[in-house]
Specification:
The complex is a heterodimer of chains A (143) and B (161). Chain A is of the alpha+beta class and 143 residues long. Chain A has 3 helices and 6 strands; from the N terminus they run ββαβαββαβ. A 6-stranded antiparallel β-sheet of chain A has the order 4-5-2-1-3-6. Chain B has 161 residues and is α+β, with helices and mostly antiparallel strands. Chain B has one domain. Chain B has 5 helices and 5 strands; from the N terminus they run ααααβββββα. A 5-stranded antiparallel β-sheet of chain B has the order 1-2-3-4-5. In chain B, β1 and β2 form a beta hairpin. The chains are: A alpha+beta (143), B alpha+beta (161). At the A-B interface, α1 and α3 of A face β1, β2, β3, β4 and β5 of B.
């Protein structure tokens, strides 16, 4: 990103959704999410969706649309389709409290998309932050 | 191909102590010897965990298994996790398993959202651990060289006591 591009931070009071795909490996037997669900990808980003402006029912529709988009790409690579298994709700301030930033990153199929950025390179530090976030999840539901 | 069908993985599952014969002996002695029945339970838990490990690796051995670009869990990571679990003493509670976006395998000891230990192991035996004890964080990294580091055992004991 060039210096001239503006970065829009998501307001701290907003609720964010983290969609979980493929099996229940990120959920414990009691339905709570494991910290792995909140670790960043190799680009040090964690994909989330802003929920505050969504209508009832629209949350799951975004998860379904994201799943379908992923599966379109996977089909071309010969990969098995992913399954939408759950979504966790987290306050934006929970990430900010861990010195992370939540940046608006709208996609063509999800204008409410955002990325959690600012993750440390050290994996141990990432794990602690993911653990702190997982411990403050508001709720986790299945479709 | 399923991992259990691969010769390299079948070899681990038939390691001494996890064979059908060993299980039969445990079950046979347990009604007469209460002390040994707990040993049988522990062995059963470990056997279940190793079975879970095979399932986990089967499910996560493709690229992008989480839809967000995760790395596949490799056979080398499986081997490292297998030997880590094998080396846990019988008096250590068995963890539950997961996988991380970089393809490392996680072992979790969980009491509550703010009281847990998570240890991840990579294909080269890289160990990364993090814990919350009443919300107080601990973390670090080290190398697995065939025996579970005392630092990690102490952390598990502290958090699960």
């Amino acid at each position: 990103m060039s210096d001239s591009e503006e970065v829009s931070h998501v307001p701290q009071h907003e609720v964010l959704l983290r969609f979980l795909f493929s099996g229940c490996g990120h959920l414990r037997s009691d339905g709570t999410p494991r910290p792995e669900a909140f670790l960043p990808n190799k680009d040090l980003q964690l994909s989330v969706t802003r929920a505050s402006s969504l209508a009832a029912g629209e949350e799951w529709q975004i998860g379904i649309t994201s799943r379908d988009k992923m599966n379109e790409n996977r089909e071309g690579k010969g990969l098995d389709p992913v399954v939408l298994t759950a979504r966790s709700s987290v306050l934006c301030s929970t990430f900010v409290d861990q010195d992370l930033s939540v940046i608006e990153k709208p996609l063509d199929y999800n204008v409410h998309h955002a990325d959690v950025e600012g993750w440390p390179i050290e994996k141990a530090a990432q794990k602690v932050k993911a653990m702190q976030v997982a411990s403050k999840v508001i709720d986790t539901t299945r479709p | 191909m399923k991992l259990l069908a691969r010769p390299s993985f079948r070899r681990y599952i038939t390691t001494e102590g996890f064979s059908f014969e060993a299980k039969t002996i445990d079950v046979a002695v347990s009604p007469l010897t209460p002390g040994l029945s707990s040993v049988a339970t522990l062995r059963g838990e470990r056997e279940r965990l190793l079975s879970d490990l095979c399932s986990l690796v089967d499910d996560r051995s493709n690229e992008d298994w989480d839809g967000y670009g995760a790395e596949p869990v490799s056979e080398d990571a499986f081997r490292q996790a297998y030997f880590f679990i094998e080396d846990l003493d019988d008096d250590v509670e068995m963890p539950t398993l997961g996988a991380e976006p970089d393809g490392h395998i996680t072992m979790e000891w969980y009491r509550a959202p703010d009281r847990l230990v998570s240890v991840s192991i990579g294909p080269g035996g890289e160990l990364t651990f993090a814990a919350l004890d009443g919300g107080h964080p601990y973390s670090g990294s080290t190398q697995f060289t065939g025996s579970v580091p005392q630092t990690i055992l102490a952390l598990i004991s502290k958090v699960t006591r």
